[in-house]
Input
Amino acid sequence: MRKVWDHTIKTKEEFVPRKRKIYLLLREKREEVHKFIQEQLRKRYIRLLKSFQKALVFFIEKKDGKKRIV
Output
């Protein structure tokens, strides 16, 4: 379902995605990130982008021991 704030971000033709340092994650962390992303896609909270630019993922541990991904 499209919302009023859904829009395409158009980049200039000369835009080149910047490569950043890749932080290796332990297998359990990678699986946790994958599970989180799949769940958010399933709920339609996020959608796949056509952009080649990537973003970092951080885990923040909450007081109850659960982790939050930001």
Observations:
- The first helix runs from residue 27 to 43.
- The CA atoms of residues 59 and 69 lie 5 Å apart.
